[in-house]
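Example 3.2
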Amino acid sequence: MDNSIEKDVAIIGLACRLPKSNNPECLWNNLRDGLDLVTEFKKEGIDDDNYIPRSAVLDAIDEFDFEFFNMTKTEAEAMDPQQRLFLECCWEVLENAGYDPTYYNGLIGITAGVGFSQYLLEILDNNSFVKTVGLNNILLLNEKDFLCTRAAYKLNLKGASATIQTACSSSLVAIHHACESLRSGACDMMIAGGVSLAVPHHQGYFYEDGMMMSANGLCQPFDANASGTIIGNGCSIVLLKMLVDAVEDGDQIHAVIKGSAVNNDGNQKATFSSPSIDGQREAIIEALEAAEVHPEDIGFIEAHGTGTKLGDPIEIEALSQAYNAYTNKKQYCAIGSIKSNLGHTNTAAGVTGLIKAVLSLKNKQIPPSLHYSSPNPHIDFINSPFYVNTVLKDWYCDIDKKRMAAVSSFGIGGTNAHMILEEAPTQPSIAVESHDYYIIPLSACSQAALNNIRQRLLEYVISNPDINLTQLAFTLQTGRKAFRHRSVILCRDVQDLIEKLNEKDETSSTTLNIEEAYAVNEILQNNREAILNKNYDLLNQLFSQYIAPDVETHDKAYQFFSSLSEIWLLGLDINWKYIYSKPSSIRKLTLPTYPFERKRCWISENTSEDELVNLSHSLCDNLIILWKRYLGVQTLSPDDNFFELGGDSLMAVNLVATINEELNLDLKVDSLLTSPTINKILQLYADPDKSKKQVLPFCIVPMKISKKTASPLFLVHPMGGTTYFYRELVESLDNNISVYAIQAQSLDGASSPKANIKTLASSYIVHIKKIQPQGPYRLGGSSFGGLIAYEIAQQLTKNGEAIELLALIDSPVPKFIAGKSKNIEEEILYFLQSIAGKENFIPAIKNLDRYIEIYKENSRALRQYKPKPYNGEVLFFSATESSRFLSAHLESGWKDLVKNLQVTKVSGDHISMNIKPNVKTIADILSKSLTE
C-alpha cells in the first residue's frame, strides 16, 4: 500500500482527568504498573446482594475554578460538572501543546461528546435554586448542545464547534470528524474528545442479570469469567493538527493518525442495542484502506473490550474477519482494553483508549490488560491474529518500520469507529540558538496560583536537568496566556534557573509607566536586526530615554533582557518571536499546565428556610437573602460591596428587578451603582430628607460626586442603554472628578428607543444642561456611547459652547461596519456574555426584551450615522486586540474626521479594555487631563 503523509494528522496535545490519573503521565505510570484504578466503597447498610460497591471515580468533581473562567459561584453551581471538567481539560490540552488561542493565527475548532447530565436532575429538585438562576439558564448550563460552543467562547476558539453524540463511540467519532475538518482545510487545529461523570458519584451500582454491568465488580475483557463492565468516569482530550504543519511549526508530536472510519450497523442485527459483526468488520476494513496500512504492521489493538459475554466474541470475530482478508499470520498482534483498569467511561471511552495507545507508542511498551486468565469460550484466539497481552511488554519493531496501533470504539445504536495510529516521526535534531540570558515569564490569575506555577516548574526542571532553556523560554513566552499576576526570571543556565525558582520570596516589579512601556515595545519591534545581531549598545541607547540603566551592572545583555522583562511585567504583550532568528525551528516542550484553584461548587441538597424571602422579616434580612442567592456566598454583611463580592453589571440589573418583584420595592435600574451596599439601599428608604433633594432626570446617573467645582465628566451609555459598563472606569478615576453617566431614557419603558444618534444627542443635551447649564463641557463614551458623545460635542460647538474634553473609547466609525452582515442576536449575546463575564446569562435577566429592543435600535442608529469632521481635540483609546465583531486599531477610521486625534493604546479587546486592570490606562490619562 502506497501511503502519503499529506493526509496524516498529528496528535500534538494530550489531557485527561481519569480515576487516580489526573494527567497523561500519571495515567501511563498506572497502566504500565498494571494497577486497578477502581474504588471499592462500603455498602453502608445496603442489604442487597446485587449491589456492587465498586466504580472508578474522580476526586473532587464538586470543585471548579470558576473565577479562572470568569464565572460566578452560583453559575458554576448550576453548570453540569461534566462541562466544567471539560473546560479545564480543554485549557490543559492547549497548554500541553504550547498554544494560546488568543494569538494563534489559524482557526481552532472543537468537537466532543458528553454524557447525560444526571446533575440536572438534582438541580431540578431544588425549587429555590431554579427560581434564582432561571430554568432556561439552568438548561443552557447543562444541555449537551452547548458543551463545545461554551468551550469555544471561553477559550476564544473560532473554528467549527460541534457536539457529537453516538453513545459509547462519541469521542472516537468526534476525533474522526476532527481529522476530516483538518484534511479539508476547514480548521488549522482541532480539539476533540469526550467527558462522562456519573452523579451521584462515589457509589456503586446494582447488578441486573443479562445487562451490561459486571456481577463481581471487575471488568474482564475477553475472559471466560467476564460478566460485564463497570462504571468509569473521566474526561480525555487530544489536540490535532495536520502532520506537515506540526513538523513545520515545531510542535511536540505524540503520535500520528494515519486513517479512520465511521459507519453504522443499520438494521442487520438482532436488536437496536446489539453489536454487529458485519458493521464492525466493515469499519475496520475501511480504516485500514483509508490509512493505507497492512494489518501485519499493526502490533497492538486497543479494543472496545467491555467484558460482556456477547460483545467481546463479536468484536474479536469482526477483527479476525477484517485482518484475515489480508493475512494468514496468527497471534502476532497484542490486544487489550483500558476498561479493565478504570471501567467504561461511556462517551469518553474511545478517546481514553486512544490516549492509552498513544502513550504505548511513545513509550515503546504495551501495558497489561487486567483480570484475564482464560479466553471466553466463544473466542478462538489461537486461530486469530490476536492474543491478550497480560504483562508489561517491550514493543520491538523492525528497524525499517514504525510501531503502529489501532483503536476501536462501538456505540449502542450501531455507530462504529476504528482508527489507525503510528508512532511519531523521528524529527532531525536542530541546533537551537543560545542567548546570553533567558527570559522565563510566569503568570497566573492569583498570587497563590503563581506560587504554585513556580513550584511546578521547579520540580519539572529538577527532573529534567538537560532541558534546553531556549525551548523552555520560547514555550512559556509563546504558549501560555499572560495573566494579571506576573513574575519574570532572568537566568543564564539551568542551575541559575533552579536557584531563582527556589527563592520563594522573590518578587518582580517595574518602574515603567504604560506609555513608556508602549514606546519601548515599539522600539523592540522596529529593531529586530539589532536584536538578532546582539547590538546591545544600540538597543540600550534607544531604551535609555524610558528605562534608567542599572548602575549596579555593566552587563549590556542583562540590561537589554531586563528591559524586555519590565515591559512584560507592566502588562503589555510582547511579540517574543522578535528575539529569535528562526522561531519556527524551535520545538515546544510539554510543560506543567495551569494549577487551577478549585473551590466547591455544588448545589445543596436542601434549601434552608432562611434562604427564602419572607415579607414578615426585616427589609435588611430579605435583602441579605437575595444578595446571597445571586452572589453564591455563605456569609454577607450589610456593608459588603456588591461588586467587590463578584457582582457584575448584568447581575446587578437582574438583582434589582428581583428585589422589586419579591419585596415590592421601586429601585431604579442603576441603584446598585450609587448604592452598592445593603445599608446604602436601606438609606434610600430611611432618609427623611430625600424628598427635598434634587430629583435628577431618569437618564442621569450620578456615579461619582466631588465637592470640587470643576465641570463634571458626562459618560454616554453604550448599546443597550445601561451605564454599569463604566463602573470600573469611574472607580479608577481621581476622586476629585465628578462623573455623571447617561443611560437610555427608554430603559424605564415609558418611551420608545427608536431614535437616531442626532436625536439622542439633542435629547441628552437637554438633561446635561440641567446639571451643568454652561460649558466648557467634558464628554466621553465607549463604543456606541462615544459616537453619541461625538455628536453632542458637534451640536454644542455649533451653538457656541466650549468643549474642554472629548474622549472616545474604541468607538467605530460607522462606515467601517455598516456594510458587514451580522446576526444581531449573536452580537447581543456576545456583548452580554462579555460584560457579565459569563455566558448564557440572558434568560435570567428581567425585562430582557426591553434591553434587546434598545440594543437593536442603537445598532441601527450606529450604522445610519454619518459623523461630520470635528476641529477640536479628541482623546481616542484604542484596543490592542480584536474581538469577534470588531478589529483592533479603530482609530484609523477617525484620522480623516478629527483634526487633532490623540491615540492611546489600551491592552485588551473592545470589551476587556474597559475592565481592570486594563481600564486603569484610560483612567490615568483622563484623570490627568481633567485635573490639570
